[in-house]
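Appendix B. Chain record.
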Amino acid sequence: MAKKTAVIDLGSNSIRMIVFEKTSRYGFYTAAEFKRRVRLGENAYNNGKILQESAMQRAEEALGFFKECAARHKCAKILIVGTSALRDAPNSKDFIKRIKDKLGLNIRCIDGKNESYLGGLAALNLLSPFGDATTLDIGGGSSELCLIKNNKIIDCISLDIGTVRLKELFYDADKLDALDAFLEPLLERIPPHFSNHNLIAIGGSLRAISNSIMQKNSYALKNLHDFCYDFKKEKGHILKILNSNTDALINCGIKRDRFDTIKEGALIFVKIAQKLGARRIITSGVGIREGVYLQDLLRPASRFPHNFNPSLRSLQDRFLKKELRYKTSYFAAKIFEILREIHGLDHRYKHLLLTAAKLCHIGECLNFYFANEHAAHFILGGLNYGFSHQDKALIASLIKLNGKKPNPYNNDPLTALLPHIKIVIWLGFMLGLAKNIHEDGVEFKFLNNTLYIYSPAKRLNLPQDELKKIAKPTIIALAINQRP
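Structure tokens predicted for this chain:
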């Protein structure tokens, strides 16, 4: 597969392109992203769904620009998918041929179920584990729902309810009185088995709403991907967005480029969330573009290999030099198991400890000094897929603390996302200890509240001064080069 691939989503409202760069077989990251607000579906829904010449010209110019950008990034492959506005249009084939003839680009027009599947595929592979859920992707012309159960995509549907469609047919035409009558039969098409307490929010409108909620609550992180909130608790704020006039939207934390369709998006969201009985909203920063890329990357499979994380691998590939690939995770795993009876932490915390151990040296690629702080920033900004916000905050904090006890007077916003301080100290102790062991043949044994670290064959040369700095749980003592 190509090292760099550009994926373009030709939507009813915007055209977006993402450049994905592979770092290994399955490791990848987003190298660049571009967006043009073309409004391909503009004036189509009130004109027999026919694409208008002005909109097609804007789309052609945007695609030409994207082709140039892809060439600058040395993309070996460009994948383009067209969604609602294109599949609905009687003249879609003419537009597709026009782009092929003038730009040499091939557009694949996908149906609603395929669009829904691609969004579900991205969420399933790139969100932290969520159990069962229904995805909702609100676009300009349609809304797609994908049912996921037991880590499998079960069913997909597409509804002709989109922000641009509602705006042109009802809001711009001042026909709001007829809106409920239009929506009701479409909502009835959602099968009962799609009902779910977990609703995964995909698409620009839903990300804008999540961003607004994060601002309102002074949330600790800026990452939208995997941000979760309680629908019942935040419903009042969403209704405030729905009922605000345009000038007041800025006070809700909505960006100006979303003013013209955010109210329509909020309406669709509330209606469908209520229909599904949603309680927990999981924001997805990925969608159809990532789905297209994953379908190409993973084929013929639909999931990454077991225990593989593309963000973790990508960070290691880019920032962890071979000479720095110590056995930190190996020793961290051994220490965790040796002390399991007294720390009582479950397998989830072991997984997070090992992730921190695998990434604790990546900051050294930038500078030896403040390497732990550099690594923490890399993790918060680059460990994008498969980890919750709480997981990322804990991993980054463990590395930044470097075995030291958290300072209760340090007003770190990440503290709100961390588990109990006793858990942080336990994990920090195990990571700090493992990070300072570089020799082979090291053995561990826990006896009488003392952790013995020794080698049957030789005397270990461990950094005693560094080990003394590690904050230990009160019930632990260390004995180095002593056999129990």
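Further analysis of this model is presented in Appendix C.
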